[in-house]
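Quick entry between incubations.
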Amino acid sequence: MSGAWWTPAAGIWWIVLIKCAVLLFAVITTFAYAMLFERKVMGWMQLRPGPNRVGPWGLLQPAVDAVKLILKEDLTPKTADPLIYRLAPFISLLTAFSVYAVIPFSEPAPGNIWAISDVNAGILFILALTSIGVYGISLGGWASGSKYPLLGSVRATAQMISYELAMSMSLIGVLILSGTTSLTGIVRGQATVWYLFPQFVGFLIYIVTAVAETNRAPFDLVEADAELVGGFNTEYSGLRFGLFFIAEYINMLTVSCIATLLFLGGWNAPFHLTMIPGIVWFLIKVGFFMFMYIWLRATFPRFRYDRLMAFGWKFLLPVATLNLIVTAVVVAVRG
Amino acid sequence: MGRKNLFNVGALLAGLGVTFKYMFQKKPTIQYPSRKKKHAPRFHGLHELRRYGDGKERCIGCELCSSVCPANAITVIGAENTPEDRRSPGERYAERYEIDELRCIFCGMCEEACPTDAIVLTPRFEMSELRRGSLIYGKERLLVPPDAGTGTPPDDRPNGIPSDLGRVAEIKSTVRWEEGYDATWRGHVLKTQTKGLAD
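Done. Structure below.
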């Protein structure tokens, strides 16, 4: 290895590094404004104006929130397991961020793949990472050494295992249709028809399970402020609470990206409106899903715990499996 | 049972429709510090100790307000007037007059009990402080400045509000008194009250 930092071989690493930095910045900015957007939209739906005091139209609110969280005291309860307690938010956050290593944002052009890495098993990588993300919540709640966080994390574990099964099942239908696990390949397979239409059942199941996977209302039993105070993050404060918060929103963004890539044709333009670049279409579609999450949260009350489990195991999983079998049979018969 | 609710997709969609519709409706929020709602003309707010037109204090230190106060928020210690130092027209005046605004429930019974209309409740309600002790109002903060004096009690004045002079004038700059109190009168229907909701 005679490579110095200026050689072409090292150049590739530099490009990846720069891409990572840009993406990190973009994702964090998106998170900040997704949060503001959520508070605004929820406000409108509840006949309030939403945050509008800091900066024009409340645009500086995320910055102020960040400063507030950083300045808050970072408490560790006496009964907590200090190492795991402190580590847990980082597990959540790192897995949430890592997913963006494989998400393609637009059609790969020569010399530019519009993603940090276009791996051929992208969807598997994402599913694996989001599964690890559960550990952040489970361990965080368990290590808090307090009853409500423990209940929250037990719920998190149960909920995520139950819904991840149905979620994976609903995605396999798409994988069968496209015949690839590469995200770019899946999007290319939707050049004419989005998988939304042949896989409509799978799409609906994915939407529902994705809400559950990200612990958003109406599946936010993990936090359940009414019964569990704040669920797994009850004991967390300051920046560590903030990290969980960021992770939640980035996970929201992730599942929106996956839904866009797998069901809504990714960067493919609808109605041949190709004069608008693919990346813009991609962002519009992701934005639609983000709005939908907020919409759901503003509308529906929280599930009861036993119904949540019953719904996952007795309805979603069988339907997802059925959808998978039907898809497989149809694809096999058509050859 | 639960199953029926869970699969009632029509109801779920209807719910989504409601929130979506509400998103575009006009918001009833009043942007508080910059805009203020009109409140009733006889709103019970911060107290004021009044004077006669000649500058003499109305309070005669009878302690009726103190004894009628259901929250025990008023402390009055009276003293005798002397020919050299005549504070009020009667025999006595209030040497100390303190109201603990944190205890006060703003019922207005002191106002009703007062034989000389000395203690009145003004519509001012913005009295937050950083310390509890600061909310025990002494005579120096309750008594209107000597040059503020009009001899009439608030109910008899044209627009039904106490004068806003001296110390009070500072607060006045943030409150649109004229908006809140026009066209309303004791015993009349408060027309402005519902209108006030639209920012």
